[in-house]
Amino acid sequence: xxxxxxxxxxxxxxxxxxxxxxxxxxxxxxxxxxxxxxxxxxxxxxxxxxxxxxxxxxxxxxxxxxxxxxxxxxxxxxxxxxxxxxxxxxxxxxx
Length: 95
Ligand SMILES: [Zn+2]
Fold this sequence. Notes:
- The chain is of the alpha+beta class.
- The protein has a single domain (7-94), classed as Hypothetical Cytosolic Protein, Chain: A (2-Layer Sandwich), CATH 3.30.1230.
- Helix content is 28%, strand content 20%.
- The protein has helices spanning 53-61, 64-69, 75-86, and strands at residues 9-11, 18-20, 25-29, 35-38, 47-50.
- Helix 1 (53-61) runs antiparallel to helix 3.
- The mean pLDDT is 87.
- The structure holds zinc ion (ZN).
- Zinc ion binds next to loops.
């Protein structure tokens, strides 16, 4: 199955902007109830998309993240992922 990022639009749960999937970070909930940044975008399970660390923080603060993932999200977990996004070079242009 070929990935065609330019045509796959996803909505950022922080700012509600639609963007190509390639410009978004996919966050998934692990079975343990934690969060993980799915860098490859291919992990199984329900995912939520954010365009920046700021949007992830905003979404977590408004419970958007928990709603998108359909499970409670520990707030510290979202912050940790946001830090990870901020420190990731490939997300610099999306900010
Ligand atoms: Zn956003």
